[in-house]
Amino acid sequence: MYICLCNGFTDRQVRSSAETGSASVSQVYKALGCAPKCGKCVPMVREMLKSVGMLPTEPESA
Ligand code: FES
To answer: Disulfide check for 13: which of 2, 9, 50, 57 has CB 3.0–4.6 Å away?
Structure first.
């Protein structure tokens, strides 16, 4: 599934970038050889990094 339409990268590319050491949103873009343009995909990239354990998840608010 496409995550970023501006740069044309997919969830698989984000996941493999995270698995090979990208530990922040900006590192993912760097590893994929691009930069955020419109920024709509940034929250999705962040969530994907959290889901693979590369970013800490925020504690649940009580
Ligand atoms: S959708 Fe990724 S920068 Fe626009």
So the answer is: 9
